[in-house]
Write a structure and sequence with these properties.
- With 164 residues, this protein is mainly beta.
- It has a domain at 1-99: Nucleic acid-binding proteins (OB fold (Dihydrolipoamide Acetyltransferase, E2P), Beta Barrel).
- It has 2 helices and 6 strands, in the order ββββαββα.
- β2 (16-19) and β3 form a beta hairpin.
- The two termini are 25 Å apart.
Length: 164
């Protein structure tokens, strides 16, 4: 059978990172995804869905390093049903997503320490502690005005590959 879910939204809480006894990283968070629609009475309505998400391995470490509450993400994964019995003896359940991949959708300004700046400006001499955009492959430029494209992804070293 095929089990695939894609969800886009904002993290509704900070990443909680922990490690298993064998040293594998596991990160938990939740994503809020909303939609606007017109109700039967003609009024605008908004529906918000909160989904718990779990990341594993190197991806868990990366999301812990670069994402925070409010970060905009696109997550691709598998839907999973968790079941348990609460303290009052009631059977409980919830759906969650085990993430297989994640794309960070925030711009550089929005991802820097949770602060938003209205316009993107490159510093002439970037600071050492600020992650730089990763190199991206772009087609040949026809117009010099188009050459000021930036990537929202942090610099992961000398490689062009994203580590997740």
């Amino acid at each position: 059978m095929y089990n695939k879910i894609i969800i886009a939204g904002h993290l509704s809480k900070d990443i909680e990172l922990r490690y298993t006894a064998s040293g594998s990283a596991i990160a938990n968070t939740a994503v809020a995804s909303s939609r606007k629609y017109k109700g039967a009475d003609g009024t605008q309505k908004k529906e918000v869905l909160f989904v718990d998400v779990t990341f594993f391995g190197r991806t868990a470490e990366i999301v812990n390093q670069y994402l925070h509450k409010g970060s905009k993400v696109l997550i691709d994964g598998r839907l999973k049903l968790e079941q348990w019995t609460d303290q009052q003896g009631q059977k409980r359940s919830k759906h969650k997503v085990d993430a297989e991949s994640v794309q960070m959708l925030d711009s550089k300004e929005q991802s820097n320490n949770g602060q938003t700046t209205p316009n993107y400006r490159r510093d002439p001499q970037p600071q050492q502690s600020t992650p730089q955009p990763a190199a991206t492959h772009q087609p040949a430029q026809r117009n010099p005005a188009q050459s000021k494209q930036t990537s929202p992804l942090p610099d992961m070293g000398q490689t062009d590959e994203i580590p997740f």
